[in-house]
Amino acid sequence: MPTIEESNWKVExxxxxxxxxxxxxxxxxGVKVIHAAAVPxxxxxxxGNTSGPFTDELQSSNVHKRSIMFGFDLKATYDFxxxxxxxxxxxxxxxxxxxxxxxxxxxxxxxxxxxxxxxPFRFDLDVSGRGGDSFQKRxxxxxxxxVAKESRSSARHAPDFDWRVLDRSSGRRxxxxxxxxxxxxxxxxxxxxxxxxxxxxxxxxxVPGQPGSVPAIYADRQSVQDTNVVVWYIAxxxxxxxxxxxxxxxxxxxxxSVPPSAPM
Amino acid sequence: xxxxxxxxxxxxxRAKVLKVAREHSALGRVLKGRARPVVVASYPEAREGGxxxxxxxxxxxxxxxxxxxxxxxxxxxxxxVDEAPVPFQLSEExxxxxxxxxxxxxxxxxxxxxRPMNPLTRLYFPPDGGPxxxxxxxxxxxxxxxxxxxxxxxxxxxxxxxxxxxxxxEET
Lengths: 264, 172
Description:
The complex is a heterodimer of chains A (264) and B (172).
Chain A: E1 2-6, E2 9-16, E3 19-28, E4 31-38, E5 42-46, E6 54-56, E7 63-68, E8 71-80, E9 84-93, E10 98-107, E11 115-125, E12 134-138, E13 144-146, E14 151-154, E15 163-167, E16 172-177, E17 185-190, H1 193-196, E18 229-238, E19 244-246, E20 249-253
Antiparallel strand pairs in A: 1-2, 2-3, 3-4, 4-11, 5-6, 5-11, 7-8, 8-9, 9-10, 10-19, 10-20, 11-18, 12-13, 12-15, 14-17, 15-16, 16-20, 17-18
Chain B: E1 2-3, H1 11-23, H2 25-32, E2 35-42, E3 54-60, E4 65-72, E5 77-83, H3 92-103, H4 106-112, E6 120-124, E7 134-139, E8 147-152, E9 157-163, H5 164-167
Antiparallel strand pairs in B: 2-3, 3-4, 4-5, 6-7, 7-8, 8-9
């Protein structure tokens, strides 16, 4: 499996003709950031839901790595011919920012804006490296508050960061924010083996984020303090305005500082 | 750029993992019935049981349930077998089976005529579909005409063929 070492990052990734572009262990400045991350599927439903939803499995044997200003990115294209296409970009900046973006190109099976896309992103973050991470969200007053139990919350603060996973002993933090227009929501879960299978595209019949679907079926009010925290971010996009991009953005705090690259 | 870390399973690696899974007593019994593996893959997401694991997901069409096994290929051992709460995406074999079933349906034949099916097949959740495993086969004979065959993989039959208007909810 390829490993990229560039722009202060070490990024392991997997992909194949039968799976999406997934991340395995990722480090920034030699310190673990991500244990695993994936966009397991795209859920599509139509207005009125008269005929039922389907899911698009993201598969690509073709991944491009690109050097860009401030870092690099990986791009996979999931091309379903004349009907529709998704582009998937994992981007890493040399200052520790990173993100995952799906571009929904459409057009889809109809072009009157009568269908929706629901995209779950799964991030098994690893700040402490010992299962000692905690989840917080920004309160209405702007202060960070502990989230005691597994639960969901909506984004409200962009361009500020809405949520964070931290290791209190080291002071390291990974903050994330929703992309405006995503109607984004975050779920904080404690790692469970069954939940990790979702990386391979296990999906319920309901809209992601709703009861009975992923990731809600894995949430049983366990603590998300001082444990292995998995963050699910779900974007809900209307087909009214395609092409459209969605996905969360992250920044690191308290990680080793690295001098910026010298100008060329 | 360097190489290292977990690797996608090779053809031989996949065969080895499946052999270990089939030799497991409970999973082997399921696989001897009307069941098939729908995922066989490297499993770097695992946080328990050590590195280098593989994951095998098996769909049991007789009882409409999914089992997931974690496998240590190095030690040739199944580490765990559990029932998954929700189904996985369709395997390539299932997509091919769904398209083959659709090709035998008279409604599909009428729609396609002598044109190619050019199928695009997806995991599908029809209203009132119950616990069965369904696929929807997009019939794409050209760039614009579409119909959609709903295939019940648990029963091995086409249960409906939808027009674009019905599938997308434009028909009221």
